[in-house]
Every structure is written in C-alpha cells, then in structure tokens.
Design a protein that fits this description.
- This protein is of the alpha/beta class.
- About 60% of the residues lie in helices and about 5% in strands.
- It is built from 25 helices and nine strands.
- Strands 6-4-3-7-8 form a five-stranded parallel β-sheet, sandwiched between helices. The chain has a two-stranded antiparallel ribbon with strand order 1-2. A two-stranded parallel sheet has the order 5-9.
- β3, α19 and β4 form a beta-alpha-beta unit.
- It is elongated, with a radius of gyration of 33 Å.
- The N terminus and C terminus are likely disordered.
C-alpha cells in the first residue's frame, strides 16, 4: 500500500479498489518483486502440489490391471524422479541463458523459428489454464474427502475458489505471494512430517495400514500388448508430478536482483522438495497398501462406493499414519486442499507474464502488455479466470476427466524448449570455434544478468549435454503421454492448440498490416488548407450551447450550426430559440425526408468539401456523461450512430463536448452546473451574445 503522502489522486480510484487496493505508482515496481522466501511458494506451489495427486494417478492406473501391477510402482516412480531431476537441471540452464521471462516460448522462437515458438506458446497457454482447472478440482476433491457432505456443491466450490484466487492476484504479485506462502510451507512441512512418521513406524515394525487395503480390485484380463500400454499409461500419469517445473523459468522477471541466481536457487529447492515428497508418498502408499480405483465400485468389499466419495490417496495415507479424524489428519487435508487450490496461483503469475511477452512480440492483443493499478498484467489474470471457470463448469470439476487434458501441453513446451536450448549452445560454441575473418554472426549473449561472468566453453558443453538429455527424455515422454492419453480426452488439447496457434498468427499478421499501413513514407503527403467547424444542433439545450461555446473559442476560420430537420414543429421552435438566445452564428437547416440524421449531414459535408477543396471540417457533438450503467441505455444512441458514420467521411474530425449529468458525480465527483455566482444571479433573460471570433466568417 502507498503511504499517506504518496496516496494516488482521488480521480484514479474506483470501486474496484475496495477489492484490489489503491493504485501503485510505477516506481514501486521493484518493491513488488519477490525475495526467494516468497518466490518459492509463488512459483513452486504448482510443482509441490502435483505430488498430492501424481502418486494417486500412477497407482490408480496400475490398479486397473489388478493388485499385482502395484509391484511395478517403485520402478515407475523412480523413472519419474529421474525425469523430474533432469528437467529441473535443464531449466536451470534455460534460466541462465534466457532470463527475460519468455521461458520455453522465447527459447523456441529465437532458436527454432516463429512457428515453433507459437506452438510452445499455445501449449503453455493451454497448460496454464489446465493448471488452474486441475489444481482447483483436486483441491475441492481433497476438501470433499474430509467433508463428504460438500460433494453436491463441487462445481460451485471450484468456481468460487477461482474467483478468490483471481481477486487475490489482482492485488499484486507480492501481496498474493505473501498471503499464499503460509499454506505452501504448511503443506510441505506436514507432508514431510507424514513421510518421516510413516517411515519410522514402518522401520519400528508397526507399518501403517490403509482402510482400503481390505478391499480387493475387480480387474479385466490383460493381453501382452495391453500390459505394456498400461505401464506406459501409469508412467504418463505419474509424469504429472513434473507440471509446474517450468514456472520459475517463465517468471524470472518477478525475482529480486540478482534475478538469475535467485531463480536458479528457487528452482533447485523446488525440485528437491518435489522429489522427496513424490517418492515418500509413493513409498508410504505401497507400504500402507492403499487401493485407489478409477471407478470406486471396482473396489470389492466397499459397500458405500455408490454413495460416498472415494478418499484421496493422501487422505488414506494420513488416516493410516495418524488415525482417521485426528488433528494431524485434518491438518494435512486442509494443507493439501489449500496448496492444491493455491497451485493455481503459479498459473496466475505465469499466464499474464507470457501474455505480456506475446503482446510485446505482436502475437496477442496489446492490452495484455498493460499493467493494471497494482502493477500486474490484470487483463491476463481476468482472461485466465474466465477460461478456467468455463472448463470447470463444462467438465463438472471432475478430476479424473480433467487430468487427461493436463500434461500434454507442458511436455510439448518441455521438448521444444529443451531442443531450442540445444541449438542455442551449439550456436554459441560454433561462433567461438570459427576463426577471425570467417566468424559467423555472434550468438545471442549467454546471460543477461550483469552480476554473472560469461559462460566458458566447458560450462557451455556441460549445459549442452544436460539439455540434450532433457530434450531426448521429454520427447520420449511426450510420445508416450500422447499415445496413452489421446483417447481418454487429450485429443481436446490437440484441438485447442491449433486454434490458439492460428489466432496468434492472425493477430500478428493484422498488427504487421496495420504497421505497414500507418508508417511514414515518401508518397503520402498531408496538405490541408482551411478550417471549418460545424456544431450539430438538435434542440436548444445547455449541452448544445456548451458545444457552440467550445467551437467559438477554438477560433476556426469559419463556423456554422447545422440542424437536421425531422419534425417541422421542432425545427420552428429551434429557430425561435436561436433568435431568443441572441446567437450570432448561422443556423443551417437540412431536410431529412426519410428521418435519417446522418445521411443529409454527410451529403452536406461532401458538398462543402467539393466547393472548398482540402479544408478540414470539425463536427462538434455534445455527449452526456452518466454515472449509472443503465443510463447508457437511455442516452447517446443517435449521436453514436451519427458519429460512427461521419468519421468515415474523408477530411472530417469529430469533437465530442461532454456534458456531465448529476449522476456523473459517482465517477468524477463534480457536475456540469453553473458557477456559484451565476447560480445566485440566475439565468439571464437576454444571454450574452454568442458570436464567432473576430476575423472568422460564417458561410451560408
């Protein structure tokens, strides 16, 4: 918040500031940047929360083949851990080379070309939306595991949480980060305590036992090909633990200086916690013999499967370790629900940043690059909230359905981003190997952070090897994920991404065409000669007199008032009022037999320009300024239509003269009333003559 001495002007405040806070000046932007202790929960909540459902999804897929398939869980979990570690190390190199916040999009765009960059951008946009959707749906799922009576309100709860997250983020990055840091740290601490306690119980000879361990599983017979496919699908589901790893690389601009070093440390802390928590929860689930099925009624022996929601995996582990209904059980459930909900906060930081980069490059509307009152890209926050709420309503916040749409986008960005980094290092090394005189164009600087020394050849080679391994592994996983999830709903992602791709290409093409159209060239010459003003008059009212006064004060070369006659009686009354007001400006009457305001006016303007050549014509029009939304329905419609048509006439400009109705006090805090002295004296019977300025003429 700004101090009292730095309070923003009252004119900049609006009712929305009751929710998001007072506007912040631009020089406070550095104060909105994040230290590591807040950046970790802001950018890591997505990756850390993934461990709350990734083990669950992995074991659920294996259970579909029968309980014997759970024997493969440790090896699949190990493969996920290796992949997560590799991807984290790969993104550490990306942060060092491209710290401007574009992340995978910038890497692919600069090293693989425009189309590859837009593929990554569309994948990331889809991934950010799905991060909000899956995180909120999973959080609501955990809340319902603790409080089953809330199950009928699943969708409503999900949408309300999205609105709360959006409102919190509209208050600014630092304020939302500080508010969300406690639940993230609480979740990490409670899960670590759960893992340690469960392992201690196991080593002491008293392993925890889940209530679902007593249930059997009804499994379908599996042939050899389906056996391999089931293992691959389990691995693909477990890879959801990698979601959010890229968030730090996309959010480097939000870190305090030194940005690169702080972002790299945050990334390593996040990866370390995610690995420990994922491996620990998977191990405890196997030790406690948790059985979790996609269809609860496939669990043999659970009579309430049709009426009660199936407890989440983390809820079953907590109940086995601490006891169902115990205080630690509820602490873990609340912490898990909160961090899953807050994991969406990672997307609320990443989506607006990516949108601003795309807008800067001309692939998204420029409004996405505009910072709001709280120095955040508020339009991106609002768009993300609307998209996520729509998907939650369509899919009824069903986590099992939504998870299938999730990790496709993130692995597309992983693969292309790491491939782009491979090409980046190859270019850098090649530029250093070429002798003088045959040197290639210099490669992009390896770092933009001034406190870091240039990258040596040895460091570049190591980075090349890390990114090569990362690109290979993520490409393999992308193929696996696509094959195993395509028919389960992932095809929707492959429909959404091309739509976004072509939309961004279209926006860029439009901006390029407009730029070519408006750029200065030697062929286009401006040479207007003369200045004529027209005041459009309806009835004799104060707004008309104000517009006339403005036109006289502007000292145009010539001035006239124009009235389009739709009613003879009204026109006669206007002529009488014109004389009574002692106005020395010519009033021209235009007939309109078809009761259209714009056509006679436009025809007259065109005729005037034919007679007087390249003369500029300014049309003055009064406009009501109102304070209530519903007043817009009652005013300004004819004037708006006339204005839109008149502006299409060559050589014409429109000047709107505002008249603030009393209701506009709600917006501006003032009204268009006479000055106090005039108010006391009253309106003069014979007003001061309103005439053109000396030297100006009125044409008939």
């Amino acid at each position: 918040m700004t101090s009292e001495g730095d309070a923003p002007p009252a004119e900049l405040k609006s009712p929305k500031n009751w929710i998001i806070g007072d506007p912040l000046p631009t020089e406070h932007l550095e104060g909105q940047l994040l230290p590591k202790r807040i950046a970790l929960p802001v950018f890591a909540s997505d990756a850390l929360s993934s461990v709350a459902y990734a083990p669950q999804e992995l074991l659920m897929v294996l259970t579909a083949g029968g309980l014997a398939f759970l024997a493969f869980a440790p090896w699949i979990a190990l493969a996920v851990v290796v992949l997560l570690t590799t991807v984290a190390l790969s993104y550490r190199q990306l942060i060092r080379a491209y710290p401007s916040g574009g992340g995978d999009y910038e890497v692919a765009h600069k090293n693989l070309g425009e189309k590859a960059g837009l593929v990554v951008a569309s994948a990331l946009l889809v991934d950010y939306v799905m991060t909000v959707v899956v995180s909120v749906a999973s959080g609501v799922d955990n809340i319902i595991s603790a409080f089953p009576d809330l199950n009928p309100w699943r969708v409503e709860l999900a949408v309300v949480f999205v609105i709360i997250l959006a409102a919190a983020n509209l208050r600014g990055v630092r304020e939302s980060g500080a508010a969300f840091s406690v639940p993230t740290y609480l979740f990490a601490a409670s899960v670590l305590v759960l893992i340690v306690t469960g392992l201690v119980q196991t080593l002491s000879g008293n392993p925890p036992v889940a209530a679902s361990s007593a249930y059997g599983v009804e499994a379908e017979p599996i042939v050899q090909a389906a056996f391999v496919l089931l293992l691959l699908r389990a691995f693909a589901s477990g890879c959801s633990a990698l979601t959010g790893v890229e968030a730090v690389a996309n959010g480097v601009p939000a870190f305090r200086l030194p940005k690169v070093r702080n972002a790299q440390k945050t990334l390593l802390m996040m990866a370390g916690l995610a690995v420990v928590m994922f491996a620990g929860l998977t191990a405890l689930a196997l030790v406690s013999d948790v059985h979790y099925a996609e269809n609860p009624c496939d669990l043999i022996g659970w009579a309430e499967c049709a009426t009660q929601p199936q407890p989440s995996l983390i809820a079953q582990i907590a109940a086995a370790v601490f006891g169902n209904g115990s205080i630690p059980f509820y602490v873990i459930q609340v912490a898990a629900a909160l961090v899953l909900l807050l994991a969406a906060n990672t997307a609320f930081n990443g989506f607006p940043l990516l949108g601003s980069v795309l807008a800067r490059d001309g692939y998204a509307p420029k409004s996405l690059s505009t910072r709001g009152d709280r120095l955040i890209y508020s339009n991106g926050v609002i768009i993300l909230a609307l998209a996520a709420s729509t998907i939650l309503v369509i899919f009824q916040a069903n986590l099992t359905l939504l998870i299938q749409l999730y990790i496709i986008g993130v692995f597309i960005s992983f693969t292309l981003g790491q491939t782009g980094m491979v090409r980046h290092w190859l270019r850098l090394l090649a530029s250093r190997r070429h002798p003088a005189g045959k040197r290639r164009p210099p490669a992009r600087p390896a770092t933009l952070d001034p406190d870091r020394a240039p990258i040596t050849n040895g460091a570049a080679v190591r980075a090349l090897m890390i990114n090569s391994v990362g690109a290979t592994m993520t490409a393999v996983v992308l193929i696996v994920v696509t094959i195993t999830k395509f028919t389960h709903g992932a095809w929707i992602v492959f429909v959404m991404m091309p739509i976004l791709f072509f939309l961004m290409m279209g926006v860029n093409r439009y901006y390029r065409d407009v730029e070519r159209e408006i750029e200065v060239d030697a062929q286009t010459v401006f040479g207007s000669n003369g200045d004529h003003a027209i005041v459009l008059v309806g009835r004799m009212q104060k707004p008309v007199l104000k517009a006339l006064d403005y036109a006289i004060a502007a000292r145009h070369d010539s001035l006239e008032a124009v009235h389009v006659s739709l009613d003879d009686a009204q026109t006669k009354q206007l002529k009488k009022d014109w004389v009574r007001q002692n106005i020395h400006v010519k009033l021209r009457i235009l007939s309109s037999p078809y009761r259209d305001l714009s056509h006679p006016l436009i025809q007259y303007i065109k005729q005037h320009r034919e007679e007087h050549g390249s003369e500029v014509i300014t049309v003055y029009m009064p406009q009501y300024i109102v304070g209530h939304w519903w007043e817009n329905i009652l005013h300004n419609h004819k004037a708006r239509r006339v204005r839109q048509k008149v502006m299409l006439v060559h050589g014409v400009t429109v000047a709107l003269v505002p008249w603030l109705l009393d209701s506009s006090d709600l917006i501006y805090g003032r009204r268009s009333r006479p000055l106090p002295g005039q108010d006391r004296r009253g309106e003069p019977v014979r007003p001061v003559p309103r005439r053109t300025a000396p030297g100006a003429t009125t044409r008939r």
